[in-house]
# Entry
Amino acid sequence: GAGVSQTPSNKVTEKGKYVELRCDPISGHTALYWYRQSLGQGPEFLIYFQGTGAADDSGLPNDRFFAVRPEGSVSTLKIQRTERGDSAVYLCASSQQYRGDWNEQFFGPGTRLTVL
Amino acid sequence: DAKTTQPPSMDCAEGRAANLPCNHSTISGNEYVYWYRQIHSQGPQYIIHGLKNNETNEMASLIITEDRKSSTLILPHATLRDTAVYYCIVRVAGDKIIFGKGTRLHILP
# Structure
């Protein structure tokens, strides 16, 4: 079946611009996670949605970063006034509960953001 | 901070078993041990997880010590396609993942 998809696969923008990154989770998955990965590092948690609401946004680095999931499916990560330090691969993952236990997180291929 | 300690890199000959160690001495009673791997330019991929019993699936085996303070991921017959960064993670099921730096596994032909 279809996995987690992310668009665009690559995004190049200029410092100070606004960008939106989209994540389509696996159908039926109620939990959705955003991570970002800098070169040579492991992925870093940003925010986690349970349904439409953000259950944990403790990883968002500052108020330039915002994410939404209005209908409990697709999510958009929004970055305002981009900075060169925002350049990274942004990963999305989804998971679901099965018989009260959580399944593993399935990751998308990521969006590579480059801020010039 | 990640709650696990892994060697930064390991080599393994193709066709041999790859044994990847992980220390997690501060693991809590409700935390599982998860393993993910990340092949170059791809998102992380789930491999296996366990609570206290050893686990096996089509990809790998997970051996957890009785005190749960360490574990070993075993890839029984490593192939070149197993070259990746392997992450050992401890977490409550359903929670966010806190990744460390993982072990970079090189499979040698």
Observations:
- DSSP finds no helices and nine strands in chain B.
- Strands of chain B lie at 9-13, 18-23, 32-38, 45-50, 55-56, 61-64, 70-75, 84-91, 103-108.
